Each structure stands twice: as C-alpha cells, then as structure tokens.
Amino acid sequence: MENLLPLFSYMRGYKKTYLIAAILMGLSVGFSLVNPLILQIAVDNSIGDLNVENPIVAGIMELLKIESLSGYLWFFAFLYVVFTALRGFLLYFVGKLSASASEGTVKNLRDRLFNHIQRLPFSYHKNANTGDLIQRATSDMETLKKFLALQLVETGKVALMVLFSVYVMWRLSPRMTISAVSLTPVIFLFAWFFFRKIQSGFEIADEAEAELSTVIQENLSGIRVVKAFGAEGAQIKVFGEKNSEYRDKSYKLLSDLAWYWSISDFLCFSQIGLVLVYGVYLNLSGEITLGVLVAFTSYVTMLVWPIRQMGNIIADFGKALVSVERIQMILLEDEEDYVETGLKPQIAGNVKFEDVAFSYSDDPKRKILDGINFDIKHGEVLAVLGKTGSGKSTLAHLLAGFYQPVKGKILIDGIDLRSIEKTWLRKSVRLVLQEPFLFSGTITENIDIYGKSEQEQIFKAAKTASIDKDIIRFEKGYETYVGEEGVTLSGGQRQRIAIARTIIDKASVLIFDDSLSALDAKTERQVRKELRAENEEASILIITHKISTAMEADKIIVMDGGRIVQQGKHDELAVADGLYKEIWDHQNTFNGNIMTGHRGN
C-alpha cells in the first residue's frame, strides 16, 4: 500500500473530481437500496400482508401523509422506474468523471516518468532494457489507468453498499440479517488472502511480457541485420520461446483466477440459498412477510456480489500495485547531476585532462582509462587513434559529461567540468556519436532538432556536412521522411545528417567519435575541409581508427589499453617506433594491396 502513496501526488489536481464521483456513487447506492423496499411494499400490499408498524414502512407512510398504501401502488411502480433511471444516470456521470480523473492522473505520471527518463545518466541508458522501459511507460500505465477509472470509486461503492444494506436489513429483521451476513466474512477473507498470495503471479507475468516486448523491439530495430544474415528462422525461434514462456505464465495466472471465481461463486450462491431457506422458514412461521423475504433476497444479492467483486478489485489492485512498483523503480533512479545551480561560463574551448582515470561503477577494479594527460588549445584539432577497446570513445563521453572521472579532473578554460551546468555544457560541447541516430521525421527535423533554426542555417549546416547535394536529389528535398532510425538513407548519409545537426549552432568544442567511418575517402576529405573552414574558432576532437583521418590534425595521441602511449604530429609518429607506425604501415600495406589487387596479411 505504501508504494501507492506517490501516486496520490499525481492525483492532486483531480481530488475534487474524484470527490464528486464518490458523492454521485453514494447517491446511486441510495437509489439501489430504496428499490427493494418498494418491492416489499408492493408485494405485501398486494397480498394484504403489509405490516404498517414496520418502522421503515411507517416512515414512508408518514412522509407521504397517507393512511393506506393500497391506492398508491402505481406511484411506487413509478418511483421504482424513476429511481432505476436516476441510478443509471448517476453511474454514467461517475464513469465519465472517473475516466477524466484517471486519464489526467496517468498523463501527469507519464509526463513525470518521461521527463525523469530524459534526465537519467548515460550509464543507466547504457544498461537499460529498452523494451522493458517502453512497457513500463505504456502497458503498466494502462493497467494503472484501468484501476483508477474502474476500481477506485468502485471500492467506495462496495463499502457503502455493504454498510447500508446491512443497516436496512437489520431494521427489517435482525434474525434474517444474521443469516444474510453469515458467509460474507468467509467470502471477503478468501478474496483477500487469495489475491495477496497471487500478486507474485502478476509480477511474473508482467516480467514475461516485458521480455517479449524486448524481443519484438530488438527484432524490428535490427530487421536489416536479420534480413542480411537470413536469420529470420533464428529470430522466429527466439520469439516463439519467449511467446510460449509468456503464454505459460499467463495461463498459470488465469488458471488460478478461474479457480478463485468458481469457489467465490459457490460461496455467494450458498449465502443467497441460505437466506432463501431461512427466509421461507420464517415466512411460514409468520415471523416475516413475503415482501420482507423478497426485499432480503435483493439485499443479500447487493451484499454478497459486491463482496465477491472485491476479488476483482483486489485483482486489479494487485496489478496496479505491480505497475506502480515497476514505474517507481525508474523514478527512484538517481537523475544525472545537472548542477542546475552550476556555472554557465562563455566557453572558448581550451580543454585539459589532468591525470584522469575512469572505470565503470559495476566493475570498479577494471580501469578503462588511467593516467590520461593531454590538452587541446582553442581552435586546435586533436586526433585520437588506437585499437578497438583502447578507451577512445570513453574520452569523448567524459568530455561530454556523460560520465565523471574516478580520479583526476577535466578542465575547460580552467574550469572543472563537474562545476558547469550540464545543459549549458552540452550546448558548447557537441558530440557526433559513432552510430548516428535519426528520428523518424523529416531531414529538416533531424538537422534542426530544437525546431528553432532559420532555413538558411539548416542549408548551411547541410552544405558544411556535404549532404546538401544528396538532399536536393530527393523528391521532397529537406522534407523527405527518413523512416525509423533513418532506414531510408545510407550509412554515410545518416552520418552527415548527424554532423549537420551537431554544427547547426556554433559550438566551442566539437567531438567526432569515429563519425566519418561510413564515408568514402573523397567525401571524408571534403567534410573535414568544410568543417575546418566553418569552425575555425572551435576546438575539435576526432576519434578515429584511420590514419588518413588523423594525419591532418594539429596533434595526435595514440591510445592502447586505456593509456596514452604516444603523442605528436603525423610526421613524427610515422617514423618513430611504436603503435602509430605499426598501424600506419599496416594501413598503407592494406590499401596498396587493395589497389594492386593482392591480398594483404
């Protein structure tokens, strides 16, 4: 129950709506409780067995100021119809108000969840399961909405129905009331303990659904790889296994629920049967009238079926509780330290790494970087070269503020990176990732990600990234839809659009994390030339595995095993013994063999 407490903060703007819905629900319960009394009066009056000394009947006669009810049966029939219609009318508004409040509450929670996900650190997203996150933001939200719309007010209805029906029955016949409630504690306790026990089943089924969602999401995201490798059969097998696992766990849950409903139905009908048997006995003994028996039959139905309905309420409550817990797990994750009260300096672009070391929190003993020292002066181009896994991309992530060093510090214009407000930092330090991501919108929307740039800025950024000629060849030009993750474009086109997006606003530091790898040599040279010409004032960090990309940089650092093993210019490093010369000789040999048609080592 404590896990539901945060939910109430999102209901803050809808408490009045829920209150009105509860009041209307109370009135509808009142109309429901009056109808059996009308039936009692009609039946007893018809057979001449009406007990005018009964306090409820006497109260009605006094209210209407009549001495005999025999001439007013038509009036009570009319009341029965009116009360039934009013009850339906009230329930319509209860449903409408509950739906409005639940939609608003869940919207607030969904907004909060999405905003929180945006502010979670890069390390969280690196390890997060995308399919599971999608399910928590959609399926779990729908489960919660169903509970708020249908069962929250229904809980109040059940409570009112039970309390007032017992009160009215007691006024009609205390002995019959005792028989009418004899099994209700058993029905309620059975529902309570059963659904407390089965809650783990909801969690297991929910997790299985999340795993199935992940398989679908990954398959659709990587469908080109699946097609390229002819791996459809393998993917169908993986999906089939997860689908069967979800089916089995859901079937187990539904089987348990079917067992519950059958036993609860037996208990409810037993309670009604007990009232009928005992009521007939009392009627034949002359202790109650036939009308009272008819009324009691209606009241006991009002009593046991809502209590039986508590099982459904508890079931939905259990599902909602699991959903809230899953959503809350994300909301309790620590947000990235944005230091919103941090510094917002005008950044020129002087970068310095001082004895920087880094390791991931899940494996602190394994140093990804160690003893990193280098600087980039304002307007300089620094290239970082090294083997796969040497820590090159981690440098880029540290400079963009995605991670914090475990030792040492990173300075920009002499200011510790940690003291600069993150959003401000990332407006000045721009990163083009190794694997460019495009949103499923138009080319314009992907270049102008903030939607604030002038058309001329978009055209200029595209020209600088050498993608403008490709764009104008498309039928719809800049308004061409790129498809999900840019599926309609080539790898090189996606990279250049990502570069255009990065440089549309002037940044002080530009980081290219192997983001020219999909370009041919001619296009790559053109892009580098345009970038340097348009960003003369920016400090540029180029991470690459190709010496042809690194050789024109003002300075090159070579990394191996998380350490800097060489620094200098191309002419110096190409003749000095070391990793750079080894890579240089290998790439020259490989390229030479390609040109002459021979196979290299």
Please, could you describe this protein's structure?
The chain has 601 residues and is of the alpha/beta class. The protein folds into 2 domains: 2-331, Up-down Bundle (ABC transporter transmembrane region fold); 351-596, P-loop containing nucleotide triphosphate hydrolases (Rossmann fold, 3-Layer(aba) Sandwich). The chain contains 23 helices and 10 strands. It has a 6-stranded mixed sheet with strand order 6-7-8-3-9-10, sandwiched between helices. The protein has a 4-stranded antiparallel sheet with strand order 2-1-4-5, with helices on one face. Helix 2 (15-46) packs antiparallel against helix 4 (73-118) and helix 7 (139-172) runs antiparallel to helix 13. The longest helix is centred in the middle third of the chain and has 53 residues, at 232-284. Keywords: ATP-binding, Cell membrane, Membrane, Nucleotide-binding, Transmembrane, Transmembrane helix, Transport.
The value of Rg in angstroms is 36 Å
Characterize the main sheet. Answer: 6 strands, mixed
CATH class of the largest domain: Mainly Alpha
Shape: elongated
CATH topology of the largest domain: ABC transporter transmembrane region fold
Number of domains: 2
Topology, number of strands: 10
Strand order of the largest sheet: 6-7-8-3-9-10
